[in-house]
Structures are given as structure tokens and as C-alpha cells.
Amino acid sequence: MKGAGGTSGGLSHFFIGIIMMCSGFYMLLNSITVTSTFGMGVRLYAFSTMGGNYNVTSGMIMIPFIFGVGLIFYNSKNILGWVLAIGSISGLIFGVISSIRFTFKSMISFDLIVILILAIGGLGLFLRSLKTLDNALPDE
Predict the structure, then answer these.
(1) pTM
(2) Structure confidence by residue, pLDDT tens digits, 55-66
(3) Which of 8, 15, 41, 132 has CB atoms 3.0–4.6 Å from 136's, for a disulfide?
């Protein structure tokens, strides 16, 4: 009988590895807090030129979007409208993603060690199950 992935690696290593890996990565991702400071009027981009500091806020990104949508509805073949609409949506998405903060919850070192052993040990067992073992009996 073939094991995981059609090799003789062993189904027990495969299932134990999958269970360990999934539980470890679940616990790891569960201990990460995601926050965002995004909202109307929040600074997305900042640049300095000619002695002044300029901020581009999330509300200011919507102004070219509104003009772009208006131009698209007036004439759908207008390239400027498409550039304004797609460019401002891209800038908005980039600004939202760049304003996300990832923080690790406070935990004791034992918890972190258990999480890493489950995640990385499970990954190792999973990958080992996909490898052909040398001492396996050949198929007849």
C-alpha cells in the first residue's frame, strides 16, 4: 500500500504532521492582534517638498475617484477617467494595507515554545511523510 503522496512515507506521519501543523499555526495566528488606524481624514501618505510637509488623507484620495467615475459615466472610453478611478482605488487599497499594524499578544515563553514545536515539528513530519523511506518493502 502506498503512503501519503503515493510514496512509502507513512500515513501516520502524514496525519500526525497535519494535525500538529494546523494546530500550531492556528495557535500562532490566534496570538497575533491586527489593528488599523484607517478612517476618513487619516493620513495615508506624507511627503516633503519646497520646505513644507504635505499629507494626503483618505478623504483626499476619494476626490480623484469621484471625478474619474463621473468621467467614466459621461464617456466610458475616456482614458483619464479610468486612470483616475483605478489609480485612486489602488492608492486607497495600498494606504489601507500600509496602515495595518500586527502585534504579538503577551504570552509566557512556554506557550511560544509549544506553538513553535507544534507548527514546525508538524511541518517536518508532514514533509517527511512525502519522502520515500529506504526501508519500505517494494510493491509486488
Answers:
(1) 0.56
(2) 677 677 888 999
(3) 8
